[in-house]
Amino acid sequence: MATGPRDAPAESGRRPDHAPIDFMAMISHDLRTPLAAIREALSLLSETAAGQLDERQRRYLSVALEEVDQLNRMIGNIVEAARIDAGKVVLHKDAVDLSELLAAAVNGLSLLIDKRSLVVERTVPPTPATVKGDRDRLLRVFNNLLDNAIKYSPPGGTIRIDIRPLDPHSPVLAEQGITVPARYVAVAIDDSGPGIPPEFLGRIFGKFECVDPHGPGTGLGLAIVRSIVEMHRGKVWVESSPGRGATFRLLLPVGEDS
Length: 258
Fold this sequence. Notes:
By secondary structure, the chain is α+β, with helices and mostly antiparallel strands. The protein folds into two domains: 16-85; 94-253, Heat Shock Protein 90 (2-Layer Sandwich). It has eight helices and seven strands. The chain has a five-stranded mixed sheet, with helices on one face. Helix 1 packs antiparallel against helix 2 and helix 5 packs antiparallel against helix 8 (221-231).
């Protein structure tokens, strides 16, 4: 059975290495107001003047919107990492349909998906795949995983999403150390990128770990994914080999008693 606290990280309180994260969180809060104003101005321009722009100008406008959204996601991750590290996260749980939530995440990243001409294939159950969880934080999990898949998939590549309820006696539960029969939902997000080198597989969910040290991002996205999933008493891991893409898998319990 997955272990860990229900509504708080496994560790709380402050540790001596918090100064850099506290500083980043403070700066992040200060950046949000001007970024929100820029985003609103670009959105208004896109809605009111797009018909008067030529194709190149519309492309520039689209790129500006994408970059502002990317900055907002990065800032959100920095603030979330600071809250998790300080033990200040409290989950607000309700019934969450993971199929609907992943659809919302895909829609929110549609500009990036379209820009790279990516195909998103979804396999979802015919009925809602509902768990009890914090909708906003689970949405951040899926945003981070999809953002990662988009970043590493080549233009024209395919991202595959698979959601399925698991039988309480499914072998995958025992393989992940969940020995008490319980109902879980399994989610897999598969990219068509270069894969993850074997030496990174054991630490890819660590803070500030990046396969590409010169790539975009803060190196916090996957660390946040792991923390939030574990706060929900779930499991997350990655399967990959060089040249064959990466598949991020997670298990989330259906109810409070799981």
